[in-house]
## 1
Amino acid sequence: DADVTQTPRNRITKTGKRIMLECSQTKGHDRMYWYRQDPGLGLRLIYYSFDVKDINKGEISDGYSVSRQAQAKFSLSLESAIPNQTALYFCATSRGGQTQYFGPGTRLLVL
Amino acid sequence: AQKITQTQPGMFVQEKEAVTLDCTYDTSDQSYGLFWYKQPSSGEMIFLIYQGSYDEQNATEGRYSLNFQKARKSANLVISASQLGDSAMYFCAMREGQIRNNDMRFGAGTRLTVKP
């Protein structure tokens, strides 16, 4: 079984809809992250969490919110999706500030 | 300012040959970490290799090695004996500063194609 899982793997939604992307991990890591990937831009950090009660904004947090429901679960919400949020979204985990391990990604298309 | 620069949008290499993917970085911190990830066409991000700024020796992991030149602020990835399965996007990334800092920045990536 994968250590870091993301659901859904693919999602098509319409402008203005609220959607949630979920991430779960079995690695026992304390830190979790959400990134988005756009062509030619590499990955950019949206939010990260050191533990359940410690959530921090990343480089591009506007238009997103997160919830760390448990050490193993970290969800990303788009309150009102817009087309320029079409991207590949990755969840990642790490033990402390060490190497980050990524989930398989969620492809999101906002029409 | 761009923290991580990968100047090669695309690279080609013949199977079984070695290839170097370039990465330069910009930081004023003394403590930082450098990472390389592979992204095959299936989309997942696979961790390859890590180099700490205080590590005196270049990191190696199997066929991957990191040519770390601190004074030049470069952290090139060397893949030896290329295989067809090495065809993928490769991303260089840097985490700066103290351990609490999770500001990890990625380069734009290099697409490697291995020719048979």
## 2
Amino acid sequence: AQSVTQLDSQVPVFEEAPVELRCNYSSSVSVYLFWYVQYPNQGLQLLLKYLSGSTLVKGINGFEAEFNKSQTSFHLRKPSVHISDTAEYFCAVTRPKAAGNKLTFGGGTRVLVKP
Amino acid sequence: DVKVTQSSRYLVKRTGEKVFLECVQDMDHENMFWYRQDPGLGLRLIYFSYDVKMKEKGDIPEGYSVSREKKERFSLILESASTNQTSMYLCASSPQVPLRTEAFFGQGTRLTVV
């Protein structure tokens, strides 16, 4: 079974400052990793995913994440945030080739961007 | 664009009522999921289905059942609603294709049980 821990439940940040959201996972097998974003009153939208290959993954809206197998981490970063990045962010894992491709999510990190 | 549509954005039901939450996807995806979202707990999987008439329990199936009679439709049923089932419910779908494991989510149904 997999599990995901998002180390910060809330992250306040000033506009144009960098932000890092931390995600650690636990799994006895290799995994695929995802970051999703949920804007207020909306469903989840995929930001980026790591399946294989380069450990640095670029996503939409200027976000990127780095897969670190030895530290079992998949931290999300953005060098300069905008007010519109205020949202909740979820890290998730799934097992490759698992029937159903079910995702296991972390508890979420709420980002509040201040002017 | 992939569309996952949940039948209601907001629902208010009474304790003991039978509640149906409906979800339809238009991309011919094999997999469909029901998650429950609560503050601080993230999304927890209730049930999922990887084929018509197939269903598997997720992490928190107690008090819920599901139905998948057609590929595009996945229903979540609360047999006898209770106040601790007040929550946001999210439906998702994904293809069963290698390296295309992205799940697409509906807008969510906020259910209040009074």
